[in-house]
Amino acid sequence: MVVSVSSFQCRWPLLFGFFFVFCGCTERKSSPDLSTWKAEIEKQIHHLQKDSQETHLANQNLVTKVELLERKLMELELEKSKMEEIIEKQNERLRFVDSLSTTQKKMDNPEDPLMPHEQRTDENEYNRAQRLIGPTAQTAEPIVFHSYLSTNSLPNLSQHHVIIFDSNPVNKGHGYHKDNGIFEAPRAGTYVLVWTLYTYPRGLVRTELLVNGNAVGGALVDSHGDDGIQSSTGLVITDLGLGDHVYIRLSYAAFNYILSYQDARSTFSGWLLH
Predict the structure, then answer these.
(1) Is 134 exposed, middle or buried (0-12, 13-18, 19+ CB in 10 A)?
(2) Where are the domains of the chain?
(3) Is the pLDDT of residue 29 over 50?
(4) In the predicted structure, residue 177 carries a pLDDT above the cut 90
(5) Residue 108 pLDDT level (bands cut at 50, 70, 90)
(6) Which CATH number fits domain 144-272: 3.20.20.70, 2.60.120.40, 3.30.420.40, 3.40.50.720?
(7) Left if phi > 0, otherwise alpha if psi is -120 to 50, otherwise beta: which for 272?
(8) Predicted local confidence at residue 129, as pLDDT
(9) Which residues contact 242 (CB under 8 A, 6 or more apart)?
(10) How do the residues of the chain divide into helix, strand and coil, expressed in percent and rounded to 5?
(11) Greater confidence, 21 or 186?
């Protein structure tokens, strides 16, 4: 078979053109696929970043909760240790009281004479018990607090504003917290709670005493009608449980401000009555 040079030269442009058309079609077909693939990858990366942020936030929340639980556990362990110590002391006192009672019965019963050795032993136990428990039962630490505002309040305080009596010269039992104005009952019992507030001329202040968020008493001081300083006192006698929270707050928004200086102190006090 013989192919002439002139025939091949005639076919060469046709083949070259077909090659370029084929390459162009391939490029146009591949370019959209690449863009779609790139967009899908970017979408997946965005989702992964979002999931990572949500996971990080969830981990932070879990860490915070764990820290709170650990702190609460430590507080409970400390409280448990204190209660165990108190129980052990009470048990020791009961044992001595029981021993004292038995010894006293033996010494007072003439029909049951003691041998000299037994009598000396019982007398020693009796004397030891008397030294430990004393002639009378020991009284618990008194609970009483007294606090007052060191300066005048800001004017026109809003409704339900908690009044923080920031000076606390007396705090036996450590129940009052001057940083937030809350008295936390150190022991269950009947308490007397009293508060006195002064208002600047043309002022109006209405307050209430709350126990665990429930109002149990109120007081009103109104000097709107004149230019003088007025005061009012509220007093509540109520039963409190261990750890109950007591505080003073505004029942309505105040007019003017609460007055407190050396000659007219606004105060909050209380003590365990029984």
Answers:
(1) exposed
(2) 7-102, 144-272
(3) no
(4) yes
(5) low
(6) 2.60.120.40
(7) beta
(8) 57
(9) 185, 186, 187, 188
(10) 45, 25, 30
(11) 186
User: How many angstroms separate the Cα of 141 from the Cα of each of 117, 173, 272?
Assistant: 41, 7, 10
d(C-alpha 190, C-alpha 193), whole Å = 10
The burial class, CB within 10 Å (0-12 / 13-18 / 19+), for 106 is middle
> What per-residue confidence (pLDDT) applies to 114?
47
pLDDT band per the 50, 70, 90 thresholds, residue 268: very high
Give residue 174's identity as a one-letter amino acid code: H
Structure tokens at 167: 């000076």
Contact 165/177 with Cβ under 8 angstroms?
no
Q: How far apart, in whole angstroms, are the C-alpha atoms of residue 105 and residue 176?
A: 47
Distance of CA 215 to the CA centre of its chain: 20
